[in-house]
């Protein structure tokens, strides 16, 4: 068992987690006595490992990944200033292909 320094309690090994999962799975049994024994075994298990039920529940919650830092894209104004001429030329070519007359003086 390793100590979880972030939460201050002992982390369970994969073998111990599997054992606890098996015990808790018995809580869904259709037999009343098996459900009762599973509850007692689960309580004995967490007592043996020095845990409490809130700690077990916290350990079961998935760890939320931290989102990657967002990098601001370069300003769009900087891209537009150099690209306006190309954009206007593209529009003129499209209009000429469609047969629209353009005033080239603008």
Short description:
This protein is mostly helical and 106 residues long.
Overall shape: it is elongated
State the total count of DSSP E strands.
Answer: 2
The strands making up the biggest β-sheet line up spatially as 1-2
Helix content bin: 55-70%
Classify the oligomer. Answer: single chain
SSE succession: EEHHHH
Measured by DSSP, the beta-strand proportion falls in 5-15%
- Average pLDDT metric: 75
Give an account of the 3D structure.
This protein is mostly helical and 106 residues long. It has a domain at 2-60. Helix content is 57%, strand content 6%. Strands 1-2 form a two-stranded antiparallel sheet. α1 (14-25) packs antiparallel against α2 (32-48). The termini are far apart.
Keywords:
single chain, 106 residues, mainly alpha, two-stranded antiparallel ribbon, 2 strands, elongated
Tell me the layout of helices and strands.
Blueprint lengths: L1 E3 L4 E3 L2 H12 L6 H17 L4 H8 L15 H23 L8
Antiparallel strand pairs: 1-2
Helix pairs in contact: 1-2
């Amino acid at each position: 068992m390793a100590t979880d320094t972030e939460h201050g309690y002992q982390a369970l090994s994969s073998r111990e987690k599997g054992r606890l999962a098996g015990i808790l799975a018995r809580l869904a049994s259709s037999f009343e006595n098996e459900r009762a024994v599973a509850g007692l075994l689960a309580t004995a298990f967490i007592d043996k490992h020095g845990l409490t039920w809130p700690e077990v529940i916290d350990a079961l919650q998935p760890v939320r990944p931290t989102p990657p830092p967002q990098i601001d894209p370069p300003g769009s104004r900087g891209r537009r200033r150099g690209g306006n001429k190309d954009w206007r030329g593209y529009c003129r070519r499209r209009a000429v292909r469609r047969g629209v007359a353009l005033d080239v003086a603008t």
